[in-house]
Amino acid sequence: MGHGVSKRTMIPKVQKMCGRRPSKLWIRRFLARRTDIVLKRPTGLDPKRAQAFNLATVDHHFELLQAFLQEHQIPWENVYNMDEKGIQLGGGRKGNRQKYFYSRDQKCRVKMQSAELELVTIIECVAADGTSIPPGFVFQGVEMFPEWFCEPNTLIATSENGWTSDFIGAEWFKIIFIPNQTCVYDII
């Protein structure tokens, strides 16, 4: 996963196999013959995430989660997923218009790229029953002016790189999550 073949890298491979450079229409005819392959733009995936994201790891996680919930009689509406999503400033996906070949059945179409970007981070949280908790936003910088933000019940923070820190995560948990969670049973 993550090392796709582009038009630019395929042409030399075909030339090496056939002994001559393929024509400009070769790619189009190749795709017409091989309906199981598509040419699409991938999304970026950091190599560290790619290493941990595999079927065996994900299956094992959910087996452990199910066993824990059953053992402690925790209902699904008390299960929350909190995550953070970085939004790239000044570029990102639009900068690379190159497409890569993938199996038509392959839904996860990624190409590894560096995660070293300027970000605004969004902290989001959703319960297994579909209810959501208000978000948090982390901007790159040292100082901010509270009067710029008028949304109540939303955490606005800054960090040197725009990423969530342990401190910012704990603040979001205390200021936003605890007052807004809707646990059915008091399990803490």
UniProtKB/TrEMBL annotation:
Residues 118-180 form the DDE-1 domain. GO terms for molecular function: nucleic acid binding. It comes from the Eukaryota. InterPro entries: DDE_SF_endonuclease_dom. This is DDE-1 domain-containing protein. It comes from Athelia psychrophila.
